[in-house]
Amino acid sequence: MKKLFLSAAVILSMFAVSCSGDDDAPIVDPPSEEPGDPTEPEIPETETRTGILTENETWTNDRIWILESKVVINEGVTLTIEPGTIIKGGEGQEAAASALVVDQGGKLIADGTAENPIIFTSILDNIKKGEIAGTNLGLGNVGLWGGVIVLGNAPISVDGDAGEAQIEGIPATEPYGQYGGDNPNDNSGIIRYVSIRHGGITIGQDNEINGLTMGGVGLGTTIDHVEVVANQDDAFEWFGGTTNSSNLLAWAQQDDGLDIDQAFNGTITNAAVIQSSNSDRALEIDGPEGPDAANPADFGFTIDGLTVVDVENGEFYADFRDGAIGTIRNAVFSGTTTGEAKFRFNGPDSQNNFANGLIVFENIELVLPVGVASAEELLVDAPAGSEGNFTNNVTVLEASATPTVGADLSVFAGWTYASSQNAL
Questions:
Q1: How remote is the C-alpha of 219 from its chain's centroid?
Q2: CA-to-CA distance for 337 and 34, rounded, in angstroms?
């Protein structure tokens, strides 16, 4: 036993000498003997959804969500999307085109922030979690997926006074897609600090999906701080309804910037439309379609605080069609275009409404296009003698002048794709 003790002592003393001779040697902690948590799941990079959602869900910002064909928020179901979440639409064609649809009675709570906006884009976009923009897609990349469609129960005006209709962009064979009703205060949720990019895929002849489609959307719905970029069809389209929308930005859409139909009876506040060489009208505005069109004074949209920049030979600033009714105030129209940057009153119903004060312009500023000598020259098909309804409310600016009206573009800084590309 003594011999064994001495041997152990010698070994111990040798270890002590070795350690004392190397002051810089690292001290390595022994591995933990505590077991890990085998129940903690690994966070996936992506998660896919398709079809009709029948239970409440939350889409978190720790992964990218993929839309495979249509994803429909069913009646009575709420989908919550966390701030900072990226959603990418798949490449399906025609009836299989990807889109997020809020059906009547469903709710979408997409409540982003300026620091963490919610982004809808194409699966082909290389944007990653935490980024505002990818690097591989540009303004020419359109129609890569569908868009966001919200369907409510607020009043609409359609042929035959049906009260309901099937939204464009969704085949009539689907069990969803109806919109319209008798509840002006209907609530479809919140869409705030949301950017929608590279959508508008064609699903049939002359049938594309808008960036943000609102069919019969009611006053209880929040539409605020929304950007649509590079959409193959319209950026924003309202089919009737009563919702108030604010802080909207449309850039480089290939159809219309703001499109109003079926007696939309709400207010659009602080909106900007930046046209491209492929854009159609900045504003396309239609009136009521049903028997109630006989009482036009009962209807009318309001756009208050509007900036339209027709920078690359776009089409009409505004096209008023089929008995359009409403008011545009505190708006500026500018650009260096030599194209059709004009205001057209299309058809006898719209012409009569303009002459009779049902299409109203208040506090308008504009920069005349190249080669145009007066504001009156911008009117197309205005009834003789009615021109003053426009020209008496217009101030012509020099190209270098600073407008005193129009949208506050600072609300789009930081969180939009347009801001990341220095387009504002």
A1: 18
A2: 71
User: Contact 230/147 with Cβ under 8 angstroms?
Assistant: no
Q: In this structure, is the dihedral angle defined by the CA atoms of residues 403, 407, 413 and 418, taken in order, positive or negative?
A: negative
Identify each DSSP E strand in 198-300 by its residue range: 202-204, 207-208, 212-215, 222-229, 236-239, 245-251, 258-261, 267-274, 283-286
Is the backbone of residue 329 left (phi > 0), alpha (psi -120 to 50) or beta?
beta
Q: Are 197 and 229 in contact (CB under 8 A)?
A: yes
Q: What is the pLDDT of residue 292?
A: 67
- DSSP letter at 140 equals T
Query: Is 117 strand, coil or helix?
Result: coil
- pLDDT (tens digit per residue) in 77-109: 999 999 999 999 999 888 889 999 999 999 999
**Which amino acid is residue 112, in one-letter code?**
G
Reported as a single tens digit per residue, the pLDDT across 199-210 is 999 876 667 799
Alpha-carbon separation of residue 357 from 161, 181, 354, 386 (angstroms): 25, 29, 5, 9
149 vs 205: CA distance, rounded Å = 19
Amino acid at 117: P
Separation between Cα atoms, residue 285 and residue 164, nearest integer Å:
20
Dmax (CA) of the chain: 125
Supply the pLDDT for residue 290: 84
Q: Rounded to whole angstroms, how far apart are CA atoms 276 and 55?
A: 41
Nearest in space to 375 (alpha carbons), one of 385, 383, 365: 365
Closest among 207, 216, 222 to 183, alpha carbons compared = 216
User: Which residue's entry shows tokens 């006898």?
Assistant: 348
314 versus 15: the higher-pLDDT residue is 314
What value does the mean pLDDT take over residues 404-417?
98
Say which residues have a Cβ less than 8 Å from residue 279's Cβ, sequence separation at least 6. Answer: 252, 253, 254, 255, 257, 312, 314, 315
Report the alpha-carbon distance of residue 91 to residue 108 in Å, rounded: 23
Q: CA–CA distance from 340 to each of 150, 311, 380 (Å)?
A: 32, 12, 10
